User: Which sequence fits this backbone?
């Protein structure tokens, strides 16, 4: 198992889009090291067993809605919480790169 | 963003030295009334952010529910592509941060697509067919639309800020992914184009999408790689994103072949990357490399349950499929008695369905073909639109042709009538009436004009009397001029001869 | 004029008084608003009190009743709602600074049902940020205090709802339970809490923590009150794809003349013993003894995979949470923070906003979850945890072949002191060791007080039933509650110290 260095925390925090202070990086590295070590025990439980994964606690299939239009939110409600808006649209800072 | 000019090898040299391999990932926007996971509408051109519910806005607490109509369309398209339909499949979350994504994950099918392992025959302009294998067709949701404001170029990079409209967020898409298409050589660009065109025709024929290129209903990502020879392993590929017209697909493949060939010929290596397509210059440029680009942290969407389409449902959909476009074309060609060349003209004009509808409205096949591949194709070309987008319907064209056939207007006048229809003046009937273009068939009125012309040109009249019947042409011309072309020339000629002889 | 004794009534009693028109909903609602004003400075159960809306709703119910309309049985009885449940027109923060001031434009399905039934909503209750925690100390707005001892935690994440009910600030409250957030607070505050079968109550409108584990349910002072509230909020919802299609079993009916004769009660070997406070064990064993005396057949069952439940939970939850919480990015609603220096790009604003808006526990879990899903680790962590989940379901299936219900202490200890476990995340996580297996398997669980530990603080008794058999919880719960109350000579909360009323 890899050790949870502060560099590793920084890499994952970047992936999770969370700015961390150097102190937070340091502290989280220590805490996550302990936590990851504890949770990695799951591998003992399934060692040597051929077990399917369960993603949903209660199995259901084919839950659909019909292709029917419903009333949308009023535009004023859509934008009510926006930190910034212009011309009926959300104003966001400049976007670097494309997906 | 400045577009650097890449070195290019001449195309002929590039394909002589390297074997191109292409692949296409095409997103088709499904023509459902409501979105993939919620009941917001999907109409085009509405006020920004007026087609969102808490679900498509990704509000805290909102949950998705799958649109049955989207699944049905996905199965329909999958079947038409010759695919297997999954016994069971799931949605996954593709996690990445981007402002056009309301939840910062896209709900998409990842390792369990609804349809897989298909194959279609793509027909090129000269009638050659190429088999394209379909790896998968999967369902997913579209993202919102960013408009970049400020900055020098209007490209994302220089923008000062962006405005986001989430009307498109959550509209259902099917992404159709081909396996690598091998052995097309110099025809690779043409094959890519023909494949995308076929897909567009197919989704329209199936009724799964309006398939309007200009609205982004069909968007292609174009993969190109080169290898030294057909025996060599596949080379490193680039993925050019969002190529949104048939012509651009062809150009983008051609450009990437030339660019990569130049890189390889100079001893360089092609980078595996996504590239942007520049319509104006016909070139590609590298996309920004993101450190987490490949780490989407997919996991099964816990808010949705698996889809297990019953075989009865799949067979019901299969039974309702229309004829495949290629099969339909062959049948129509036989019905219409067109030569291969004539049929190709119709296909290349994108007018198969228009001709069919015109014939259905009563026109003779040859006449319908003549209009759609002639005057109307030229008009569409001049206007830079698809022939399907002209403001004239097959019913109009059939009505126009009926006016000609019944002798109420002449061929020359018919063009004027069509102009009127295209200008929004109404049906051909209405244009004829409003512009007063009907053939003058009243002999009395024509005789007046004939007499006037004969009187004006007594020398010509004399020549005719003397037996020089061909001289009658000058009088006919004068009468046509006087009636502004609305007379039937043959009838006028008969009247001239009758008048002079009497 | 309000009658302070109204706040001591159960919801069932208040409903009867309202139906008999002996009191009005305005009187009942005002009495609770007054109680909140009196004690909530000390308890801090509420993040938002919606006095005007609650009174307006109460007046509407009174008017409808006066007009002779047929009303829901609980119409007019006020309720408090955990702040992870979205409420139209009422601030919803999920205990996080990142959502400070956000007013949702829509109601959660369960809130629609509360409103439709005519239950005035008193306000939004405090919780650990995004329901991540077992003490409410991770709330972005300060902790809630346990009414039994203000220096102690009220449990978490739903400490606000449990404390509000325990402190008579509300007769009913809504909680959400992802790993014990309804049951563990109920245990440490001497109240009743139920986590329904997964899919039994709609999740539409719950600010999601871990989608495959979250479930909303009732928080009350009696088992009957939980059944009454559960029947209001439960049942199929087409807006939640994981909502169970079948109707709820009769829950209130199960509390009538309950009887445990012949009922097979399984004591889970792995959920007692080491790690459980002696006073907790003693209270639990005494309660099991009462069931046995009443004719229940007590058997011991073994669920060996439970040993790994906590580990699996702390992979599945953070993984799902890391994705569910990705939407909090400062682009569309909530907090937006610009980076202190450097270019202001969307990417950097997202990171700065999340860095400033999320608290320590949220950061810890989101980073853990991101890591568990990231390339190269998925199979070892998330994938394996989902397999453990299968093992736990199999353990439950085997146990329920031997027993009709399973029982255990709800939490290994009574309420600990505020701050005591704040610096030791793993110790904090251990509070949920007995409640987590039910969430992993999707089965229902109930916690009710079984007595006081040797430290004088309440102990919770957990009942678990097979999926969709929530009625069994109420049958056993109602029986045990009646037996215990008879022994105690009154409800356990009567033993709690009276809170000092702050000057108004």
Assistant:
């Amino acid at each position: 198992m890899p050790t949870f260095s502060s560099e590793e925390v920084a890499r994952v925090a970047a992936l999770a889009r969370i700015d961390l202070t150097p102190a937070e990086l340091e502290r989280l590295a220590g805490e996550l090291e302990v936590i990851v070590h504890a949770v990695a025990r799951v591998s003992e439980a399934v060692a040597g067993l051929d077990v399917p994964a369960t993603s949903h606690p209660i199995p259901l299939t084919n839950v659909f809605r019909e292709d029917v239009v419903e009333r949308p939110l009023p535009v004023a409600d859509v934008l009510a919480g926006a930190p910034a808006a212009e011309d009926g649209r959300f104003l966001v800072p400049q976007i670097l790169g494309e997906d | 963003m400045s577009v650097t000019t890449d070195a290019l090898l001449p195309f002929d040299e590039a394909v002589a030295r390297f074997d191109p391999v292409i692949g296409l990932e095409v997103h088709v926007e499904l023509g459902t009334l409501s979105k993939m996971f919620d009941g917001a509408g999907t109409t085009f051109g509405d006020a920004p952010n007026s087609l969102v519910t808490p679900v498509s806005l990704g509000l805290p607490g909102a949950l998705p529910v799958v649109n049955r109509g989207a699944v049905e369309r996905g199965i329909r398209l999958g079947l038409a592509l010759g695919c297997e339909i999954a016994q069971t499949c799931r949605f996954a979350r593709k996690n990445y941060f981007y402002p056009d994504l309301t939840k910062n994950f896209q709900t998409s099918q990842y390792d369990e697509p609804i349809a897989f392992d298909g194959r279609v025959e793509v027909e090129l302009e000269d009638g050659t067919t190429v088999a394209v294998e379909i790896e998968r067709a999967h369902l997913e949701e579209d993202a919102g639309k960013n408009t970049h404001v400020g900055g020098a170029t209007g490209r994302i990079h220089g923008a000062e800020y962006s405005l986001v409209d989430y009307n498109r967020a959550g509209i259902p898409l099917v992404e159709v992914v081909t396996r690598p298409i091998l052995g097309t050589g110099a025809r690779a660009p043409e094959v890519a184009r023909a494949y995308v065109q076929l897909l567009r025709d197919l989704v329209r024929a199936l009724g799964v999408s309006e398939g309007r290129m200009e609205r982004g209903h069909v968007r292609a990502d174009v993969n190109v790689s080169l290898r030294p020879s057909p025996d060599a392993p596949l080379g490193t590929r680039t993925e050019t994103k969002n190529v949104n017209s048939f012509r651009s697909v062809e150009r983008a493949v051609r450009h990437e072949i030339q660019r990569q060939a130049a890189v390889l010929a100079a001893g360089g290596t092609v980078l595996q990357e996504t590239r942007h397509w520049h319509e104006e210059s016909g070139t590609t440029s590298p996309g920004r490399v993101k450190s987490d680009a490949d780490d989407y942290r997919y996991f099964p969407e816990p808010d949705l349950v698996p889809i297990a389409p019953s075989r009865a449902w799949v067979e019901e959909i299969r039974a309702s499929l229309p004829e495949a476009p290629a099969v339909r074309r062959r049948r129509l060609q036989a019905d219409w008695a067109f030569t291969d060349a004539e049929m190709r003209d119709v296909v290349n004009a994108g007018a198969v369905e228009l001709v069919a509808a015109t014939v259905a409205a009563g026109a003779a096949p040859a006449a319908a073909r003549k209009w759609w591949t002639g005057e109307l194709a030229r008009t569409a070309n001049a206007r830079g639109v698809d022939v399907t987008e002209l403001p004239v319907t097959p019913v109009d064209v059939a009505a126009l042709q009926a006016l000609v056939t019944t002798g109420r207007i002449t061929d020359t006048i018919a063009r004027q009538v069509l102009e009127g229809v295209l200008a929004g003046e109404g049906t051909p009937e209405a244009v004829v009436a409003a512009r007063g273009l009907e053939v003058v068939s009243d002999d009395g009125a024509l005789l007046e004009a004939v007499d006037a012309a004969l009187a004006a040109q007594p020398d010509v009249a004399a020549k005719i009397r003397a037996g020089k019947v061909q001289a009658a042409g000058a009088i006919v011309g004068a009468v046509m001029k006087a009636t502004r072309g609305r007379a039937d020339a043959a009838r006028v000629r008969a009247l001239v001869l009758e008048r002079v002889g009497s | 004029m309000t009658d302070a004794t109204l706040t001591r009534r159960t919801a069932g009693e208040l409903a009867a008084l309202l139906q008999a028109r002996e009191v009005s909903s305005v009187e009942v609602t005002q009495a609770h608003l007054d109680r909140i004003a009196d004690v909530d400075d000390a308890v801090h159960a509420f993040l938002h009190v919606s006095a005007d809306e609650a009174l307006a709703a109460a007046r509407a119910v009174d008017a409808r009743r006066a007009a002779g309309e047929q009303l829901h049985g609980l119409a007019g009885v006020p309720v408090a709602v955990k702040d992870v449940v979205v409420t139209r027109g009422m601030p919803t923060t999920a205990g996080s600074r990142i959502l400070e001031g956000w007013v949702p434009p829509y109601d959660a399905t369960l809130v629609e049902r509360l409103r439709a039934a005519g239950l005035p909503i008193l306000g939004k209750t405090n919780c650990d940020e995004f329901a991540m925690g077992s003490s409410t100390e991770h709330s972005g707005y300060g902790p809630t205090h346990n009414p039994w001892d203000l220096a102690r935690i009220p449990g978490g994440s739903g400490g606000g709802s449990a404390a509000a009910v325990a402190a008579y600030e509300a007769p009913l409250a809504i909680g959400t339970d992802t790993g014990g957030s309804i049951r563990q607070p109920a245990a440490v505050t001497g109240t009743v809490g139920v986590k329904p079968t997964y899919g039994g109550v709609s999740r539409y409108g719950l600010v999601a923590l871990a989608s495959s584990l979250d479930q909303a349910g009732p928080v009350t002072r009696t088992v009957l009150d939980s059944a009454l509230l559960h029947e209001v909020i439960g049942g199929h919802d087409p807006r939640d794809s994981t909502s169970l299609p079948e109707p709820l079993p009769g829950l209130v009916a199960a509390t009538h003349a309950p009887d445990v004769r012949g009922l097979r009660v399984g004591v889970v070997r792995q959920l007692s013993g080491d790690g459980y406070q002696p006073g907790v064990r003693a209270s639990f064993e005494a309660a099991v003894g009462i069931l046995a005396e009443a004719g229940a057949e007590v058997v011991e069952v073994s669920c060996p995979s439970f040993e790994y439940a906590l580990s699996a939970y702390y992979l599945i939850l953070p993984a799902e949470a890391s994705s569910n919480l990705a939407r909090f990015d400062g682009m569309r609603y909530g907090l937006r923070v610009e980076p202190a220096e450097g270019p202001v790009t969307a990417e950097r604003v997202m990171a700065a906003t999340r860095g400033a808006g999320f608290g320590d526990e949220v950061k810890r879990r989101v980073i853990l979850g991101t890591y568990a899903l990231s390339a190269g680790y998925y199979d070892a962590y998330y994938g394996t945890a989902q397999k453990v989940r299968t093992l736990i379901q199999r353990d439950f299936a085997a146990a329920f072949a031997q027993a009709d219900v399973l029982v255990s202490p709800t939490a290994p200890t009574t309420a600990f002191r505020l701050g005591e476990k704040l610096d030791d995340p793993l110790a904090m996580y251990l509070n949920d060791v007995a409640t987590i297996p039910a969430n992993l398997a999707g089965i229902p669980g109930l916690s009710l007080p079984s007595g006081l530990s040797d430290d004088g603080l309440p102990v919770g008794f957990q009942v678990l039933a097979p999926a969709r058999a929530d009625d069994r919880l109420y049958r056993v719960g109602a029986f045990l509650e009646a037996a215990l109350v008879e022994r105690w000579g009154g409800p356990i909360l009567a033993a709690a110290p009276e809170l000092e009323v702050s000057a108004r």
Summary: Chain B has a mean pLDDT of 91. Chain B has 17 helices and 15 strands. The longest helix of chain B spans residues 246-265.
